[in-house]
Design brief:
The complex is a heterodimer of chains A (159) and B (104). By secondary structure, chain A is α+β, with helices and mostly antiparallel strands. Chain A has one domain: Hypothetical protein apc22750. Chain B (Translation Initiation Factor IF3, 2-Layer Sandwich), CATH 3.30.110.70. Chain A is built from 3 helices and 3 strands. A 3-stranded antiparallel beta sheet of chain A has the order 1-3-2. The chains are: A alpha+beta (159), B alpha+beta (104).
Chain lengths: 159, 104
C-alpha cells in the first residue's frame, strides 16, 4: 500500500514538474534559436568536388567548437514509455526529450562559437550516447570560422 | 595547434601528413552527484553535473589526441571526429581522432 502511494506520488510529481519544465525549456530553446538565426550551421565538411566549404582565404581562422547536454526523462514519461514498449509504436515522450537535447546541444555549440566571434559553423556533427543509469548525452561539434583579428583570444576547447 | 573538423585550414597548405592520432578518456559518475541525478529522474530535465562530467571527459580526450600529434611533430589536426560509448553502468568513454598534419 505504502509503495503504491509512493509510486503514485512520483508519477504525479513527474507528470506536473516534467510538463512544466518541458514547456519552459521549449520556450527558452525557441528564444535562443531566434537570437542565433544569423549564425548558419552547415553539416558539409567538404564540397562535392572534395574541396573545403570554407574559402581558402588566409584572413580567416577556424576553431573547433562544441556543446553538450545530459538529460533524463521524468518519472511519468519513463513509466509511460515502459508501458508503451510492451505494445510497440511511437514513444513520443522520448522523441520530445531527444529533440530538446539535440537542440540544446546545438545551441550551446552556437553560443560558444558566437562568444569566440564566429560568423559561421562548418562540418557540424551530432553525436549521442545513452549511458545506463546516467542519462542520454548529446553532443554537437563543428568548426567555427571568423575573420582574423589583430588580437586573438584564447582557444576554447583546448584551454 | 590548429584543430578543425574540416579537411583543410583556410589559407594554409598541408605540407606533411602523419596519419591518424587518437585520444580517449573514460569517466564514471560521482557518487555524491548521483543522489541529485536520482531526483532529476523524477522531475526530468538536464543533469548538469553529468553534462560537466562529459565535457571534462571530452576535453581530456582531445588533449590526449593533441599530445600525440605534438609528439609526431604536427602543428595541426584536421578532420577531427568524436565518438562515445558506454563501457559500464554509469561510465562512459569519449574518444577523439583526426589526422595530424604540418601546415606551412
Amino acid at each position: 500500500m505504502a509503495n503504491l502511494v509512493i509510486f503514485l506520488t512520483l508519477l504525479t510529481l513527474g507528470f506536473f514538474f516534467g510538463r512544466y519544465r518541458e514547456k519552459r525549456h521549449y520556450e527558452e530553446i525557441r528564444r535562443r534559436e531566434a537570437a542565433l538565426l544569423m549564425m548558419p550551421v552547415r553539416v558539409e565538411a567538404e564540397m562535392e568536388d572534395g574541396s573545403s566549404p570554407v574559402p581558402d582565404d588566409a584572413s580567416l581562422e577556424t576553431q573547433i567548437v562544441s556543446g553538450n547536454v545530459v538529460v533524463a526523462n521524468d518519472y511519468f514519461k519513463t513509466f509511460v514509455a515502459a508501458v508503451k514498449t510492451i505494445f510497440g509504436g511511437r514513444l513520443t515522450s522520448y522523441e520530445s526529450l531527444l529533440d530538446r537535447a539535440r537542440r540544446e546541444a546545438m545551441l550551446r555549440m552556437k553560443e560558444e562559437a558566437k562568444g569566440w566571434g564566429a560568423t559561421e559553423i562548418y562540418g557540424a556533427r551530432l553525436e549521442s550516447t545513452f549511458i545506463e543509469k546516467l542519462g542520454l548525452e548529446v553532443m554537437a561539434y563543428g568548426t567555427a570560422v571568423r575573420p582574423i583579428r589583430a588580437k586573438a583570444e584564447a582557444p576554447l576547447l583546448t584551454s | 595547434m590548429t584543430l578543425t573538423t574540416l579537411p583543410t585550414v583556410p589559407g594554409k597548405a598541408i605540407r606533411t601528413h602523419f596519419g591518424i592520432v587518437t585520444g580517449s578518456s573514460v569517466r564514471a559518475k560521482h557518487f555524491g552527484k548521483d543522489i541529485f541525478a536520482g531526483i532529476k529522474n523524477i522531475f526530468g530535465g538536464e543533469l548538469k553535473a553529468y553534462t560537466e562530467l562529459m565535457d571534462e571527459t571530452r576535453r581530456e580526450a582531445l588533449k590526449r589526441m593533441v599530445m600525440q600529434a605534438q609528439e609526431a611533430g604536427a602543428n595541426a589536426v584536421v578532420g577531427i571526429r568524436f565518438g562515445s560509448s558506454d563501457v559500464a553502468q554509469g561510465a562512459a568513454e569519449i574518444f577523439a581522432y583526426g589526422t595530424a598534419v604540418i601546415l606551412e
